[in-house]
Amino acid sequence: MLPEIRLQKVSRDDLNRVRDWNRKSGSIDGWLGHYSINGVLDIGYDSEKVLSLSDAELNSLLDNNRNEIRSVYDDDDNHLGESRVLFLSDNAAEISIFIGDSKLSNQGYGTSVLIHLLEELFVRYNFRYIVANLPERNNRLIKLFNSIGFKKSLDPVECVKHDGCTNIVEFRIEKKEYDSRFSDSDFGISHNSLSITGLVGSLSHRVAQKVSEQNHLPYVNHEIHRDLAIRLRTTQKEIEDFLISSASFWGRLMAKFVASHPGYIPGDTLSLSSDFLHTNYIFDDSHDHINLNKKIYLENLKVILKSIYQENKLSIFDGHGSNLLLPEICDSHFSVYISASKTFRLKMISQELEISLDEANSFLKEQDAEISGIYKNLYGADILDMSKYDMVVNMDDISMNTAINLISKAIGTRSVS
After folding, report:
1. How far from 313 is each of 5, 21, 27, 216, CA to CA, in Å?
2. Are 215 and 411 within 8 A, CB to CB?
3. 379 lies in which domain range?
4. Are 165 and 294 found together in one domain?
5. Buried/exposed code over 9-30 (b: 16+ C-beta within 10 A; e: otherwise)
6. How many Cα atoms within 13 Å fall on the side-chain side of residue 138?
7. Highest averaged pLDDT of the listed ranges 164-178, 181-195, 245-259
8. I need a surface site. Which of 94, 96, 272, 353 has the fewest CB within 10 A?
9. Where among 133, 149, 182 does a domain terminate?
10. Both 93 and 215 in a single domain?
11. pLDDT tens digits for range 262-303
12. pTM for this structure?
């Protein structure tokens, strides 16, 4: 059996370790796949330059619409190496993997990472083929990729990216080849999920993050929209605009009208409503949408959630309708709602945003209306329907630590982990 690994966000300490490992090896041939990313994170990068970047700059460098760089960890929370994905086109991506400690060679860690990346790129992101540029003389590495299904696709070419680099050969695996080999695998067969949901100001996001940290579990939130954007070959802004348009009747009305009248510039609501009253529209008819609609969004969101769920033994999902969608996907799911009074929520919002209670009240009304509209119009449910949750935690009555411990204990009691 292959060792369990997980791919997670790269920390500054991780970057330093990868740099040190690479300097000790003294060769890029230790990489499983050619090191593809040029720039400040290229081979032999200046750690001082990287560490001087702001958090926002570093996050943008590591995770964007062109590449995805993540750290490889084992089940005991040991940092093993790094994985890189370079998005080449709508159909193709290139992969690179590095296992830093030479003592871990031939123990299956590289293979585990490779299979995880293929599962993610083919299933979650819907690419047609994946390529890896391998050193021509590294027969052990070529044999490994051949065993997974990669085949030589181009003749050797001279490497011009790095000093001391041997000739490289491009190997490729098609999605149909991957499906024929792994469609019946037990990948993720015993994995489970936990969702945490709450309204703005309830501290649900903070609780979810803390439960994740305390139990050393992956925290899933903002990357869902990024994964959707990659899978649908669109932008995160378009996805977020779609969600906003789904929050209310008039928002959905505007999206429907603009999609059907490409030359229309939104303006007078009265003229819009007058035109609508004389036009027959069905909100869920995908043929009336140019890009995103409810059907496409939900179908692809489920694919993303299932892929993340299968990648980890247990993940903490924060919002995104996960309490409603994951029970349809997972063998075992535990759903938690974080409750709080309006007074509590107003206080938290006022402190977090540094605004008055009156301003916080206006913000709360707007956010509640938006999330309630999204749940009603997209998921066909009421976010406040407590029958949809396995556990309700009221933050008015308990501390943050108590909430975290209650949820962590419930995970074990319900045999979710």
Report:
1. 10, 28, 34, 11
2. yes
3. 192-413
4. no
5. ebeeebbebbbebbeeeeebbb
6. 23
7. 164-178
8. 353
9. 182
10. no
11. 433 333 333 333 333 333 322 233 343 346 889 999 999 999
12. 0.70
